[in-house]
Amino acid sequence: MPKNYKRRLLYVLIPFLFFIIISTSTSIQANEGISTYYIRYDVQSSRNKIINDNLLMIPAKNDFRAEKFSQFFTTGVISATPGEPEPLIDKRIKENSLKTILVESGLKSVKIKDNDTVISYEGIINTPLHIIQKTYNEAQNNFSYKVNVEFSPLAFPDRWETLHLKYKFKKMFSNFFELFK
């Protein structure tokens, strides 16, 4: 074994460690737009009556708390008013389908204070949402629909640390291999 073995090993390892640190802190990929969103649906009730509901959608490009994405199909019915524009109907259909998915499959949490209760449903979606079928019923003045959504509920908070480490390793290896493309 050469006398300077440790020194040569050090010369090789220091640039390699430096490279790993830089590759984890910078993003090499170009921003291709937002496709992943964190969504939360809050239903507020007081004395067993729903008084308010709110659907929140925030970009979540680097969110690691997602369990596993799956394809979900939702069906439902929304009321229509005569002469309502098509984009507004599509928006209402998408909002209603997101609320349905969250209530059925999202991570549920409950906050209670006095007689007020807030139930939150949380998850992550990949856009776009696809309206597969939309049918107008003239007799009842409503639309029935079927929507395809790629959805993942949030993991329980006790798994977030593990998912964060897994996310960091994936990102580190992804950035490393991007250099060779």
Keywords summarizing the entry:
alpha+beta; 6 strands; 181 residues; 3 helices; six-stranded antiparallel β-sheet; 33% helix
Provide a descriptive summary of the structure in words.
The structure is a single chain. The protein is of the alpha+beta class. 33% of the residues lie in helices and 40% in strands. β4 and β5 form a beta hairpin. Mean pLDDT is 81; it is low at 25-31.
Secondary structure layout plus pairing:
Blueprint lengths: L4 H21 L10 E11 L2 E11 L10 E10 L6 H20 L1 E7 L2 E22 L4 E12 L6 H19 L3
Task: Offer a concise description of the structure.
The protein is of the alpha+beta class. It contains three helices and six strands, in the order αβββαβββα.
**Rg measurement, Å:** 24 Å
Number of helical segments with 4 or more residues: 3
Provide the β-strand percentage band: 35-45%
Count all strands and give the number. Answer: 6
Q: How would a textbook summarize the main sheet?
A: 6 strands, antiparallel
